[in-house]
Amino acid sequence: xxxxxxxxxxxxxxxxxxxxxxxxxxxxxxxxxxxxxxxxxxxxxxxxxxxxxxxxxxxxxxxxxxxxxxxxxxxxxxxxxxxxxxxxxxxxxxxxxxxxxxxxxxxxxxxxxxxxxxxxxxxxxxxxxxxxxxxxxxxxxxxxxxxxxxxxxxxxxxxxxxxx
Length: 164
Known about the structure:
By secondary structure, this protein is of the alpha/beta class. Helices cover 35% and strands 25% of the residues. The strands form two sheets. Strands 3-2-6-7 form a four-stranded parallel sheet. Strands 1-4-5 form a three-stranded antiparallel sheet.
């Protein structure tokens, strides 16, 4: 499989009350196909988020949107475009960032969480002093180096940031 140029076509999810921003690298092919974030059925993002927020697992895009906005969570990705093979973050080349700074000016974001090391590396490269940031483990089905219990422990930082 060869790299293809991918343009980020999903709008950021946020409102005037968003205090936490969660960033991935680039939507997966499944997420692009379904028009929303973390939509691969084996991705553990929604399982982690609903657990740390003590909410029922959201099954529809509408439920997922409401869950985030109800809790002051914004979603987007670090990149506006890149060359990538499938959903393999390790293959990313020619990365162009989204306007994260512009988004942060529109709402009271206090903390940025990145989902995975590549998203964190790219965030730090493009936005080194923008906002406090925390690197969380990737919820991608490709990341099986961490147990769900350990991942959940780290994702509790989101709930803690929302309580501050």
